[in-house]
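Board notes, transcribed. Complex of a protein with zinc ion.
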Amino acid sequence: MSKTLALTQELISLSSVTPEDKGCQARLAELLAPLGFVCETIQSGDVTNLWARKGTAQPLLVFAGHTDVVPTGPLDKWQSPPFVPTQRDGKLFGRGASDMKTSIAAMVVACEEFIAANPGHQGSIGFLITSDEEGPATDGTVVVCNQLKARGEQLDYCIVGEPTSARTLGDMIKNGRRGTMSGKLTVKGVQGHIAYPQLARNPIHQAAPALAELVAEQWDAGNEYYLPTSWQVSNIHGGTGASNVIPGDVVIDFNFRFSTASTVEGLQQRVHAILDRHGLEYDLKWTVGGLPFLTPRGTLSDALSSAIKAETGLDTELSTTGGTSDGRFIAQICPQVIEFGPPNDSIHKIDEYIEVRHIDPLKNIYRRTLENLLL
Ligand SMILES: [Zn+2]
């Protein structure tokens, strides 16, 4: 049996639902230590993180990912138990099969093969593994990144093993992710009897023209790598439930998915300017969920793209679509971060799977990338 397939199955059988790691990282460390990696567990709250490094020279190429998985959902909906890796019809089923235990296994075996064939390779190799990616992500990668920064550890390249392929292995890699920022806007009026509007002030009427302007606003035009920033209202709440009362306030929740063509401060200022121009009395609370990051075409994306081409014959597409990932934290301490992993059509679903024919090619792509960067 393929070594990567065997290790993938081993990891799937450990039921590491966030923030549990269930011994996955200890197993990885057991495999990495004999290869020359110095392995360190960084515990934060109930989250287990692994930092491993082989060598002290630059450049440092880091493989990053998570051992935790999302909950299974109703067990009786699964065709086979989610933590019993099971092969059917050329697919390996199990929670974490595509997000992202196969990637982790492939990264480890790729290093094993690369180091065995090239004991005198240049630079260093690192692993940054967390068990808190699918949860609040407050005790995971961000904690390790802060520690590495404090120690002056210099990362040059990072490959995050998130499932980024779309239709087939290698057709898409992510060289950035949009940022996310939410706002909770409370527009204040004066409550009163609906028959005496002159004695009240209707906050819904006052907010409506400002809302129309916010909806129509073009925040930016995007750039070479990003679609334009989008602004969406998610909830509006106003009114007492009675039909004869003008409400005292209206609460509007909205969210920005923003590109690197805009900044947090710039977007906030523009929202305030529109609200102020309409003379609203309001309160606005901001929550920045994640900053955008971008790795322009360069050494790392070229190394990965040519590895994909050599292994699969495909010309991979660079994309910045999708939700946020831990790449946003790593990008704060590493100039080039690219995400690449298997197809993502079954992630977080019942009967999550990976096609068995993708497992060894994924490992080969990681190994070829090591060859492209460290030989
Ligand atoms: Zn993931």
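The two ends are 29 Å apart (CA to CA). The mean pLDDT is 96.
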